[in-house]
Amino acid sequence: MKHYITIIVAAIVLAACGTQRTLVEQYPKMYEEKPLSIAIMPPINQTTHADAKDYFYTTLYAPLCEKGYYVFSPYLTMEMFQNESAYDSEMFLEGDLSTFNQVLGADALMFTIVKGWSKSALGGSVTAHVEFILRSAKTGETIYQREGKVSVNTSSGQSGLLGLALTALNTALTDKIEAGRRCTAYVLSNMPAGKYHPMHDKDQESPAGDAYVKGSAK
User: Fold this and answer.
1) Which of 30, 129, 194, 215 has the most crowded Cβ, counting Cβ within 10 A?
2) What gap in Å lies between CA 19 and CA 215, rounded to an integer?
3) What are the pLDDT digits (tens) for 159-178?
């Protein structure tokens, strides 16, 4: 009986491994279009934190650059978006993006939807729930999409009343920037590498991972 159970378990494991999709299978448009430049759209805030939109916007730049893409300065694009009444990304999420390609020269636009944001001052942790959608500014198609719920530890590492005080202060100072940056890097870890990354076009057979991820980011 144990022998048959072992065979069944092994078959399930092999089947699971066999269904693991590669990056090129999960995101074929990324390898077809090979976007070089990305413009970051103002985040869509679905939380009760009114300032989540502004502070999360600035956390997206570095992780995308580290993935090998040319990213337009978020400060310059934000000013342009505000002047051109494009601050509300909701109106562009499903709309025509060709203007951004013609005016900015952007190959793709990164949309983010902040769905949840909570913190525990005593526990020193922040949990961010964000969906990332990369749309082609040429075809309008979604070429990358992933969602994640990520917990980030922002504790001071000290115990006692002093530790609690430092943790509260540390959380207040870093949760908005550091937690957002780590969440972005965690979720975009499976994003196909851009031209300015050594793995560009060499990561096609790498495992894509799940479209929705949940975990802790260091």
Assistant:
1) 194
2) 22
3) 444 444 444 444 454 566 77
Phi, psi of 44 (to 5 degrees): -95, 115
Would the pTM of this model clear 0.90, i.e. be above it? no
Token digits of residue 71? 């990213």
